[in-house]
Amino acid sequence: MELALKKLFYVMPFLFGIGFIAPLIAQTMAYWDIAAPLGMSRIAFGLMIGAPWGLYAMLRGRWI
User: Fold this and answer.
1) How far apart are the C-alpha atoms of 50 and 15, rounded to whole Å?
2) Do residues 50 and 22 lie in contact, with contact meaning Cβ atoms separated by under 8 Å?
3) Distance CA 60, CA 54 (A)
4) Burial 33-62 (b: 16+ CB within 10 A, else e)
5) CA distances (Å), 25 to each of 8, 10, 11, 37, in order?
6) Quick check: 21 and 54 in contact, CB under 8 A?
């Protein structure tokens, strides 16, 4: 159980990036009526930002 929790907490920044930051970006764009670039959906654009940011935070150990 301890090992499973350690692995879960290790990937939490990535999960936060795709599970919170990406939808937040998409909802903010929808609220301000901003279209996503290149004809993609807003959530796809949010995932393009949230996933790498979460991966960066997971690998570096910090968000900035």
Assistant:
1) 9
2) yes
3) 10
4) eeebeeeeebbebbbbebeebbebbbeeee
5) 24, 23, 21, 13
6) yes
Report the distance separating Cα 30 and Cα 15, nearest Å.
22
Beta strands (DSSP E) in 1-64 are none
Per-residue pLDDT at 61: 87
40 token code pair: 């993609």
For residue 15, the number of C-alpha atoms closer than 13 Å in the C-beta half-sphere is 6
In whole angstroms, give the CA distance from residue 36 to residue 6: 36
Residue in this structure with the two tokens 């907490």, named with its chain if needed = 9
Q: What is the mean pLDDT of each run of 10 residues along the chain (64 residues)?
A: 93 96 98 97 97 94 80
Amino acid at 31: Y
